[in-house]
Design goal:
alpha/beta, TIM Barrel, eight-stranded parallel barrel, two-stranded antiparallel sheet, globular
Length: 207
């Protein structure tokens, strides 16, 4: 199996195109204003416009109002939604677009119980828990907390970087990996060398 790769928190067309050319499968666009990686609709449109065929733009939200998602979908050619907060299953499913449901993992949280209501999600994304922060923390969680044989494809996130992604893929065998801060030179600015080394690490682990 080939592990899919999402480069999240991309803020420029240049970084998005570089990631796509290096082998990324998806580009994450953050529509959460408190994030340093947040983009406007116009920025997102510029990024999406340069993406080659088969590279999926993913729109990330944290506890949005429905009209906020609808406004993005009306102007951006998005292939996948990602909900990273405490959204209800009804909200996630109401837009007619495939979605990922993210869960921030910490000891004591029953992952199966928490994720089962989102059985219609295209995949379940597991990230590290950090109080008041949604993604891009640079922290990993204990992969031993992941139950075997999840009902939906697993997207592994949280603290991944070129130095540990091969080990993560070999240990967890996720459907996809999701990286943001681990391939940056500064918040929101991707480092092409780190992206290349991250993708190489994934591919080496796939062998």
């Amino acid at each position: 199996m080939r592990t899919r790769i999402k480069i999240c928190g991309t803020t420029s067309a240049r970084d998005a195109l570089a990631a796509a050319n290096l082998g990324a499968d998806a580009i994450g666009l953050v529509f959460y204003p408190p994030s340093p990686r947040s983009v406007s609709i116009e920025q997102a449109r510029e990024i999406i416009a340069v993406l080659p065929p088969f590279i999926v733009p993913v729109a990330l939200f944290v506890d949005p109002e429905p009209h906020e998602v609808e406004r993005v979908l009306a102007r951006c050619r998005v292939g996948l939604l990602q909900f990273h907060g405490d959204e209800s299953p009804e909200l996630c499913a109401r837009f007619g677009v495939p979605y990922l449901k993210a869960l921030r993992v910490r000891p004591g949280v029953n992952l199966i119980q928490s994720l089962t209501p989102y059985a219609d999600a295209a995949g379940w994304l597991l990230d590290a828990y950090q109080e008041g922060t949604y993604g891009g923390t640079g922290h990993a969680f204990d992969w031993n907390l992941i139950p075997p044989d999840l009902a939906r494809p697993l997207v592994l996130s949280g603290g991944l970087a070129p130095e540990n992604v091969a080990r993560a893929v070999r240990r967890v065998r996720p459907w996809a990996v999701d990286v943001s801060s681990g391939v940056e030179s500064t918040k929101g600015i991707k480092d092409a060398d780190k992206v290349a080394r991250f993708i190489a690490g994934v591919r080496n682990a796939d062998v």
